[in-house]
Amino acid sequence: MDHVVTALLTAAVMDVIGGVAHAELLEEQVPIVTALPGVIATMTEPWPAAYGSAEFLRAWARQPGFRLLK
How far is 69 from 12, CA to CA, in rounded Å? Predict the structure, then answer.
């Protein structure tokens, strides 16, 4: 639950000041994340990651098993 609250709070701050969320991913999460709204870019090297808007962060936080890696 703390992970979701942190993500939603971050998205709310992004709504006010802007910015881009950087989400480090597990390899099996890449196909899920690429289909979410608000994705700006994804990468696989040197590790899987996605960059996205506040909309992306909210959508990612709603996914089953969501958790922040750091």
Answer: 20
